[in-house]
Every structure is written in structure tokens, then in C-alpha cells.
Design a protein that fits this description.
Elements: E1 2-10, H1 17-22, E2 28-35, H2 42-54, E3 59-64, H3 70-79, E4 87-92, E5 95-97, H4 99-108, E6 116-127, E7 130-131, E8 140-147, E9 151-153, E10 162-164, E11 168-178, H5 184-208, H6 213-217, H7 223-234, H8 243-255, H9 262-290
Parallel strand pairs: 1-2, 1-4, 2-3, 6-11
Antiparallel strand pairs: 4-8, 5-11, 6-7, 6-8, 9-10
Helix pairs in contact: 5-9, 8-9
């Protein structure tokens, strides 16, 4: 068993949480669930999973904390839940590990030399049961495992990343999967919620006259995350509103061959690359025209 604690944030994740935890196949000492007062069976499921895992020397600890934003909630979980293992890991409830990644973590993590404090994993996204392999969506590199106390989540409204304060990173070869089993209606509601967060994030950045890229550049993260942040703020957001959503969809669907992902890919790339980006621009336009600032967002109600 690996000396590892996995931190998972939840809000009504009864449908996803079991497959997430079971995907670790018993190699993890402890799971920390930080719940923002779910109204489904998430808490009951955590108690059930805890009873099952304790038979194998692992456990699930369930906490509840009022939602402010993702970064605040995750950092609360990392600092206020008494993590004593050598390594910590961030997972989303709708993610799971592939079997070969489980084996890689089990074999490699205990052997990592001092001075290397972070592990970058590859993520693949599934949508309506299909792997979205094209359109620039794979592979996505994410800093997800780190020596306890050497990293935190950057304080942003959107696109927040784990930042390593000291030490180097190493990249593992195998994949984790983002495979949410909730409905398309839930996905749309979630992205509507995301769009409010992104508008507020951009408004806050402009008000503070700060360069977001520095949040990543001053600390160790993935080169992919730094490049995406640079392109988004130095390129995409300097293009005219609404036109940029159109151009981004063309780039994703045609130039990056998102059409190869079939009908599920067509739905995903249109909604995620065009509809969502257009919605963000529409809300920005509304705020600018009416002199409004987007309100601070509560947790997702969907």
C-alpha cells in the first residue's frame, strides 16, 4: 500500500464516487472527502465505502465544509484534514485511474528520490461514453500527486492548477480518466455555472491589473498549463468577442480533427469549444453594457 492520501471534493457525487475510489484497487492508505453539503446519498456512500476499505487497511474520512470556490475548498482539504502520509493527491469524483496507472503509482511512487516532489499525470476525457481523443483534448497533463506540504491550489475562480512550491516534477506514462456518468442536462448546467465563474475571473484580473501567467511561472507546474494560460490571456482574449468562439471551434473541430471523435465528439466540441465560449462572451457583453460585475458564485446546484 502506498503512503498516499487522496483528496476528493464532492457535491452530490453518489453516481461517480464509488467507481473513483474503487479504481485505486486498494493501494491508497486514506481517502479524504470534502463535501459541500450534498443532498443525495454521498455521505451514506462514504460511510459504506469506509467500512469496506477498513477491511484492507485503508479508510474514507468524510468532512463537510461550506463552499466558497474550488481552490479554497481544495486547500482546506489539504490543510485541515490532518494528512500525515508522505504523498497527497487531488482527484475529482468523476475521475478514475486506469489499471496500468494504478500499477505505475504502486511501483514508482515509493521509489521517487528526494528533491522530486510532484508527479504529472495524463488525463483522457470521456463524453457520452466515448473517449474524446482529438480536438487538442488528449493528452492533458496535470500535476496531481505531490509530497504533502509542498503544493497548494492556486487561488483562481477558473482553470486553477496545483502549484508546487519546491522541488522538481516527474511524469508518469499512463492515464487517468475523466468519465462523468451524469446527464447532458447536468453537463450544460455545470458549464453555465462555469461561465459565470470565468467572467468573474476575467473581471477580477482586469481590475487587479495582474498578469495571471505569473501564478504558474513563479512555481513548478506543467508546461502545458503555462502555455494554455499564456495563449488564453495573451491571445484568445485579445480577439473580438464572439468571433473568437467561432475561430476556436474551427481550430478544435477541423484543424485539430475533432470530427474524428464521431457524433459524441461533434456534440462535445460544439458545446465545449463554441457554445460555452460564446456564452462567456455574451455574459461579458451584458456586464460591460449594463455596468455590472458578476456576483461571487456559490456551489453548483445542478
Amino acid at each position: 500500500m502506498v503512503d498516499l492520501t487522496v483528496v476528493i471534493l464532492t457535491k452530490n457525487e453518489e453516481k461517480n464516487l464509488r467507481k473513483c475510489i474503487e479504481s485505486f484497487r486498494g493501494i491508497v492508505k486514506r481517502f479524504v472527502i470534502v463535501d459541500s453539503f450534498s443532498t443525495d446519498g454521498t455521505e451514506r456512500l462514504c460511510k459504506e465505502l469506509d467500512r469496506e476499505l477498513r477491511q484492507y487497511g485503508s479508510k474514507v474520512d468524510f468532512y463537510q465544509n461550506k463552499w466558497i470556490d474550488y481552490a479554497t475548498q481544495l486547500n482546506w482539504g489539504l490543510t485541515q484534514t490532518h494528512i500525515t502520509t508522505e504523498w497527497s493527491m487531488r482527484m475529482d469524483a468523476d475521475e478514475e485511474l486506469m489499471e496500468d496507472l494504478v500499477e505505475e503509482i504502486n511501483l514508482k511512487l515509493p521509489k521517487i528520490n528526494l528533491g522530486t516532489n510532484g508527479v504529472i499525470l495524463r488525463r483522457r476525457v470521456y463524453f457520452m461514453g466515448r473517449w474524446i481523443k482529438h480536438g487538442g483534448r488528449y493528452p492533458e497533463f496535470l500535476l496531481r500527486i505531490f509530497r504533502t506540504g509542498t503544493a497548494m491550489c492556486e487561488q483562481k475562480m477558473m482553470d486553477e492548477h496545483i502549484i508546487l512550491f519546491e522541488g522538481k516534477t516527474v511524469e508518469f506514462k499512463h492515464d487517468l480518466i475523466d468519465n462523468n456518468t451524469k446527464s447532458l442536462e447536468w453537463w450544460i448546467n455545470k458549464h453555465n455555472w462555469y461561465s459565470n465563474r470565468e467572467v468573474l475571473d476575467q473581471q477580477t484580473m482586469i481590475e487587479n491589473q495582474k498578469n495571471e501567467v505569473q501564478l504558474l511561472e513563479n512555481n513548478e507546474s506543467t508546461s502545458q498549463a503555462k502555455m494554455k494560460r499564456m495563449v488564453k490571456n495573451k491571445g484568445y482574449y485579445r480577439l473580438p468577442k464572439f468571433l473568437r468562439a467561432h475561430l476556436y471551434f474551427i481550430y478544435r473541430y477541423y484543424i485539430k480533427r475533432g470530427f474524428l471523435d464521431g457524433p459524441e465528439g461533434k456534440i462535445y466540441h460544439f458545446l465545449q469549444a463554441y457554445w460555452y465560449r460564446f456564452l462567456v462572451d455574451a455574459k461579458m457583453h451584458e456586464c460591460e453594457k449594463l455596468g455590472r460585475k458578476m456576483e461571487q458564485q456559490s456551489d453548483l446546484k445542478a
